[in-house]
Amino acid sequence: QVQLVESGGGLVQAGGSLRLSCAASGRAFSTYHMAWFRQAPGKEREFVAAVGWISGTTRYTDAVKGRFTISRDNAKKTVYLQMNTLKPEDTAVYYCAAGSRFSKPDDFWGQGTQVTVSS
């Protein structure tokens, strides 16, 4: 079992930056692939980025490539999402997730943190 708590969301102007953090508890954190998803109002939850637990391999949805960076610190049991050059369409609730499948690491979820980008 992994418990996840997100932080770092807030209100930012377009072009600005935010860094989200996800603190995990549980012994097996380092063996889970970690990911960020987001859900905008009236839309389905969508994948944003993932980082593997062994090699640190990363993957991103096309909409955030070159702007967002996912990383993890296994010693601190924390995963980060650095978001740069934010756009109004990035506005959403961002969820941290953990799972055993790199293709879809969604076995465990956090409560989410709101990110609002004003134009």
Q: In short, what is this structure?
A:
The chain is an all-beta fold. The protein has no helices and eleven strands. It has strands spanning 3-7, 10-13, 18-25, 33-39, 46-51, 58-60, 68-73, 78-83, 92-99, 108-109, 113-118.
**How far do the termini sit from each other?**
40 Å
What is the strand content? over 45%
Number of separate helices: 0
Described by strand count, sense and barrel closure, the largest sheet is: 7 strands, mixed
Total number of strands:
11
Helical amount = under 10%
Shape, principal axes of CA atoms = globular
Radius of gyration (Å) = 13 Å
Order of helices and strands: EEEEEEEEEEE
User: What are the segments in which pLDDT stays under 50 over at least 5 consecutive residues?
Assistant: none
Assign the structural class, choosing from mainly alpha, mainly beta, alpha/beta, alpha+beta, or little secondary structure.
Answer: mainly beta
Mean pLDDT metric: 94
